[in-house]
């Protein structure tokens, strides 16, 4: 598990400048920080480096010269630095977006907490982290509308959207490739590589049907079973799927203690005593966690005649990657508008074919 975080910036006049660190007790010498700077400077590009200095195992992510910010994570000796690359890239972009008025300082503890659990993230949480990143979400939404884009066009567009500075476009692209959202292809006659959407992200609330059907065996007194069903039915009668609601849900999931509690609530209807046992798994403030889940309308509290409280899911969240069947219509539309060349359109169709076949093969292998 990481032991500390240092956010550094290079100043041509002052040299190494520490913007923030967490916890405050972490000690990385100026000599070591200079060594990190020099190693990044040698390549001159954004990206990841790792180095061992004495007993310290360090990994550093550099935004590139336009912004010049370095995020350095201190690891235990047995940890693999490369595992943290995407997490550090995401965290660095979040800092860059909040440089104005030093707003990033308030984010450092939560950034460190997220990075600490990053290697153990489930596929669900990795997808949630991907979609809550504003820049990656912007690229995905454009591809949902157009299907394919020139890489050079996306680079210019992103930098224009972030007039106060956006760095590491390449890192963003690579993360979308690793997460199987896009593929890049070189197309004859195109001025740069093409980006093709090969997976979309689907997010929605879903009713906890198994918990309702098996509520008594899952921990709820028989007398409260109908009340539980009624609460869930009432909620979904008014529910609308919106991006604002989805982002609230995903940000709630990304709190480690809240997610640990959600895992329990997906399996059972519980009492306060059951929840207190989660302290062994790092849930130290159960009241804060319950407030998080209540605020996003994920839980309902049911009381029996004796005043005993039972905590149950009111709504669950479903996050999955889906094959973009609608992309064929986008290809047809973009080609008719002359927004995409015939060669680029055919290449996209072949790319989608490959992705679909790979999904089919994987699906057959798992059955």
3D architecture notes:
With 367 residues, the protein is an alpha+beta fold. It folds into three domains: 116 residues, Longin domain (Beta-Lactamase, 2-Layer Sandwich); 115 residues, Arc Repressor Mutant, subunit A, CATH 1.10.10; 117 residues, Arc Repressor Mutant, subunit A (Orthogonal Bundle), CATH 1.10.10.10. Helices cover 46% and strands 20% of the residues. It has a five-stranded antiparallel β-sheet with strand order 2-1-5-4-3. Strands 6-8-7 form a three-stranded antiparallel β-sheet, sandwiched between helices. It has a two-stranded antiparallel ribbon with strand order 9-12. Strand 4 and strand 5 form a beta hairpin. The model has no long low-confidence stretch (mean pLDDT 90).
Key structural traits:
single chain; 367 residues; alpha+beta; Beta-Lactamase; Arc Repressor Mutant, subunit A; 3 domains; 5-stranded antiparallel sheet; 3-stranded antiparallel sheet; 15 helices; 12 strands; flat
